Amino acid sequence: MTASRVLRNEGGYSEPTRAKVMAQVDALGYLPNRLATVFAGDRPSTFVGVSIPDLGNEVFTQVLEGIDHKLASRGYQTVLGLTQHTLEQEEAWIETVLSWQPAGLILTGRSHSPRAQSMLRSAGIPIVEIWDLNSSPIDVSVGLAHFDSGYEMGRHLVSLGYRRIGYVGTSHDVANAASRRLEGFTKAVQDGGGDLTRQFCLHDTATFYPGYYGTEQLLAMGARVDCIFYQNDSMAFGGMQYCRRIGQSVPDDIGIAGWGDMPISSVLDARLTTIHAPHLKLGQAAAEAMAARLGDEPVARCIDVGFRLVPGNTAMSRP
Amino acid sequence: MTASRVLRNEGGYSEPTRAKVMAQVDALGYLPNRLATVFAGDRPSTFVGVSIPDLGNEVFTQVLEGIDHKLASRGYQTVLGLTQHTLEQEEAWIETVLSWQPAGLILTGRSHSPRAQSMLRSAGIPIVEIWDLNSSPIDVSVGLAHFDSGYEMGRHLVSLGYRRIGYVGTSHDVANAASRRLEGFTKAVQDGGGDLTRQFCLHDTATFYPGYYGTEQLLAMGARVDCIFYQNDSMAFGGMQYCRRIGQSVPDDIGIAGWGDMPISSVLDARLTTIHAPHLKLGQAAAEAMAARLGDEPVARCIDVGFRLVPGNTAMSRP
DNA sequence: GGAAAATTTGGTACCGGTAACGTAGACGTT
DNA sequence: AACGTCTACGTTACCGGTACCAAATTTTCC
């Protein structure tokens, strides 16, 4: 008991005793068993479960990095879960991680299986849902309005004079944020009187090569598009490479727009037309919201980290 | 006690009892507390701590993804630790994560602080060190020979006729694998009678933009280089973009070589001269070695996943 | 039908840390 | 000297699941 007090700096012991305890700690190489502390139920654990769809997509790794930095600096550990964009895997992971008595959970996406939802609600711990802003979250939502960002990009491209517009993405899953962007984009194109042709590369992550071959497939469909919007910047870069390889000039023959404003943009000779999304900041905001909830500080239910259109010069005004 | 047996499918109970227990489980929304199980010391936990330097670097995210897939499929959870390439942060993370009684640890890199080493050795759990192959690991090493890969690239470039060679990387840290590659590369260049000029972008992660401005700095040093080797493909791409922007033709005016064979290579019009490293496979092999150790199956102490030179065409034979 | 064997079910203790409380001794006050 | 107060340190019980063992019940078999 006295040793326990010394190790927690709780006071109530004398200096000679403290020295003796510390000497034994060193001699024995003693490491406390945090399991026992949490198990005893006296204080919450320092685990935070963080689930993201995958790591192949740069956006999520940036979000995760932002989360982990902030959590680690507050003394929390990240338990990672990759859901592969499926609610089943998310549910299984939630069940497992909850059995470890985490201090809180950070989940990517706003839709969860019914059983997952009931587990989350009855867990009695802070739940932060990130990525797509949710006006009625389980607990706290941190993200940005993906629908609006898609709409803004659509309106921008239409305003530049594009009308025969293509979209290349990886998944048709109605639940995810990319689909919400596409919905907003679709609405803007329709509102502006344009045509939209969609091409999905299923069973692939949203990286360079799917952008490349997705563009090939889109153009092979015979749709004479004058502009293509991509699920993200990596795919847009892949698509731009394809366009150039077949002799199409960007933006003269074909306009290219991405989403995310990823690091690759900083070295391209053309400034990519895209939506800047503050990924790192989003992750940090999510971790701070979690830390605040864990510390019983007041937290807004919805935290909008915003986005910003980057006009760039891969989609320019048409004659 | 009977309920415990039912929940573990341990046998020794009747069907009516099983039904009654399960009914209560459903009615109460009962979730077992795995903390208690592990705490009781009866069986090992299903946590595996995984530390990597950072997530800004695509190579490590691929390794991590490979690890997490395999671990998850075996029923283990990943506890993430980002060390920011410092041994101090690694040591602090190891101490924390060990106090959670993990089943095992996977660490990136072969060097650890003295205190970290003693904690690891006395932890009595499987330790898999990945990335740079280590002939005398604490427990198990999974990786590739970074020195050799650097040497092979150096010999290749020299054999093509390059002599005034530059290197651009992010860190001068003697401990990490990139430095080992550079050592091998340096030796090969010296053996071949070439000159090597190094440029380090400190305090930055090895991504596109540091490759870009690192190249600018290297060339500003007045070193008239005919070829540049980069810490990885992302930096090489950034550097190639800089060279082209200032009107240098690749590979006619200047050769470019990367390391890693990252996804971006698949969409570039030029095939990047690089070293193919099997990142995903490395992660999977590490996770499998861990799973085997946890299941008391025999495991080799050193697992070499190999590498392969990709000649490409951004560094070509000189006249 | 009754003893032996097998099956099912329940009681107790333990894992390691800590809250709650108890106690011994030092010290001060009147 | 008697009493209260404070500090330092020790004792006990508990968290939830499970190993171990004992008890109760059912099944088997002569």
Could you please describe the fold and organization of this structure?
- 2 copies of one chain form a homodimer.
- Chain A has 319 residues and is α/β, with parallel strands linked by helices.
- Chain A has helices at residues 2-7, 15-28, 34-39, 58-73, 87-98, 114-123, 146-159, 177-191, 208-220, 233-245, 279-294; strands at residues 47-52, 77-82, 104-108, 127-132, 140-144, 164-169, 195-200, 227-230, 255-257, 274-276, 302-304, 308-310.
- The radius of gyration of chain A is 24 Å and the shape is elongated.
- The termini of chain A are far apart.
- The mean pLDDT of chain A is 93.
- At the A-B interface, helix 3, helix 4, strand 2, helix 5 and helix 6 of A face helix 3, helix 4, strand 2, helix 5 and helix 6 of B.
- Strand 2 (77-82) of chain A pairs antiparallel with strand 2 (77-82) of chain B, so a sheet runs across the interface.
- The first copy, chain A, binds a DNA duplex (30 and 30 nucleotides) through helix 1 and helix 3.
